[in-house]
Amino acid sequence: MNKNEHENIAESFLSAGFTESEINLALSGAARMRAEEQSFAEYFSQNWSRAYIVSECFYVMINKAAESCARYFESLGDDEKNEKPNTFTALTRLHKRASQQYLEIITLVKAGFADGAFARWRSMHELSVISSFILKYGEPVADKFIEASETEDRYDWAMASNAFRENKRHVTFGDILKLCDLDVDVWKEDYTVANQTVHASPQGTFGRLGAQDNGDSLRSGYGIAAPAIQCANTLALVSSMLFSLYPDEETVEKMSLAAKLLDALTEIYYNTHERLFPE
Fold it and tell me: Would you list the domain boundaries of the chain?
């Protein structure tokens, strides 16, 4: 902070009724926060940069595959496009949202916020569940999902699947989870932890992912490997569902390269965590 910025902020505080000692206390605390942020950035660069670069490369390759898929779809004739247009639109939008959340999670990982990253992964996982359900039940469900975007409907669009009894009042996410084609048991433990992290639970409060031995450090490299690995796995899953609708050789090739990067990413994050935290 330069001198002019300091004076302008101090003047704003004074006009709000703060004393000079209170202003200095607040500004010195803010300076310590910036120093801690810079210190963690240096730590992350020294220890996790290789893993982070692979995370970025994985995102780039997934994005290239998505671009290829979109080009191939546009090259199709009207008859081919009209086979699953709503499903393609819905899964494309879900994929774009998952891609954004992937970047959000990696940003939190880079900042040392494992709990925030894992909490964000919860939403990403739910996108994969919705994608799987729409892919399974096809056009009628995809059409209602798109239509519901202009309403307050959260999950009742899923009634178009005809998989629920007619007199069912409301569909829940849990109902969709039971009927999607994902192996939910594989994700169950992590999803439970993510729920504890999101909500004001005692488990999420006293068992912070980023707190080794329940320490009080706000930023930590401890725990960041898990959300980094899981968000990559989930983005790969959502991508594969979208690309399965209109598969083409170029998209399949790029997705194959992304899968190789996913293996490397998993190994690098895991090995880095084991090296830094050998307990």
Answer: 1-39, 48-276
pLDDT tens per residue across span 203-261: 777 777 766 555 566 788 999 999 999 999 999 999 999 999 999 999 999 999 999 99
Coil, strand or helix at 223: coil
Cα separation, 19 vs 76, whole angstroms = 69
Q: What is the pLDDT of residues 63-78, one digit of tens each?
A: 999 999 999 999 999 9
Q: Please report which helix (H) or strand (E) contains residue 36, including its range.
A: helix 20-47
Instruction: Give the list of residues 6+ apart from residue 260 with CB closer than 8 angstroms, or none.
Output: none
C-alpha distances (whole Å) from 142 to each of 89, 147, 167, 203 are 8, 9, 21, 37
**DSSP, res 163:** -
Q: How far is CA 29 from CA 14, 19, 25, 168, 211, in A?
A: 17, 16, 6, 55, 22
The DSSP H or E segment spanning 234 is: helix 225-243
- CA gap 178, 160 in Å, rounded: 16
Contacts of 218 (CB under 8 A, 6+ apart): 36, 112
CA–CA distance, 88 with 66 (Å, rounded to integer): 12
